[in-house]
Amino acid sequence: MGAGHGHGHAGARHRWRLGVSFALVAGFFVVELIVGLVSGSLALLSDAGHMAADVVALGAALTATTIASRPDRTGRRTYGSYRVEVFASGFTVLLMLGVSVYVMVEAASRIGDPASVSFGPMLLVGALGLLVNVACLFLLRSGSRESINVKGAYFEVVADAVGSVGVLLGGLLVGLTGASAWDTGVAVSIGVFVAVRAILLGREVLSVLGQHAPRDVDLRALVNDLEALPAIAEIHDVHAWTLTSGMNVATAHLVLRVGADSGEVLQQAQSILRDQHRIEHATLQVEADPTRECHSATW
């Protein structure tokens, strides 16, 4: 039994970009962690914690694109393993939220007991981190528009870029004022930014896993376009959802008028869904007798 049609997917096209970004971020994480521990900077340590999440998230995204590209040999994954990319994005959300909570808790523990911070290493590592993040942003930007998996990695790097800017700013303020409280303030700002980004991405992940209609699909317009076909008397049981980024799926029951050519109607309907609504994989059930009751699902 075949397991469905083969599909190309957006994540696989950008796998090499994920690989290069992973190598850059992993290398820098080691540097930032060591300098953060030596300098005592919470901003550096919080950014290193987020960088560690980046390493795991990029590694998960890279692994997910590899798994999603493998053909199903079990015969049971009729949609393939494309959803692995969505789960990887969900994992990234959890990592980002975890880092944010850690930073907030650590910042709260320093209230009234500020630690001594060396601002020189903060400036040096912040500048180096910004260069690494900018390089990764250029690598992942195009893929983030096509793949939710790459978007998760891209959001991680965006948050890290902001973190690097924060580390630079914190280092300057600590150096100019001598007050280490600036370091804590910058760390809290990084934590809040990371949390907001995680929530936005999490909503998108839940929308896909909840099988909501894709954002770029107007179901009302879709039904109207199909009902405009002269041979169709009625349409019901319409469902549309996203399998993974760039793969929208739909099902519908088409009730035909008497004497209509079902083969021709199916071809026209598939063309409408593909060309006007970006749904290439649609399963359409034809009901030839408009007077006969369709025993459709009650849910």
UniProtKB/TrEMBL annotation:
Membrane topology: Multi-pass membrane protein
Main location: membrane
Keyword Transmembrane helix among record annotations: yes
Record-annotated Cation efflux protein cytoplasmic domain positions: 214-287
One protein family per Pfam: Cation_efflux
Transmembrane segments: 20-45, 82-105, 117-140, 152-174, 180-200
SUPFAM superfamilies registered for this protein in UniProt: Cation efflux protein cytoplasmic domain-like, Cation efflux protein transmembrane domain-like
Family in the record: Belongs to the cation diffusion facilitator (CDF) transporter (TC 2.A.4) family. SLC30A subfamily.
Protein name: Cation diffusion facilitator family transporter
Species name: Nocardioides cremeus
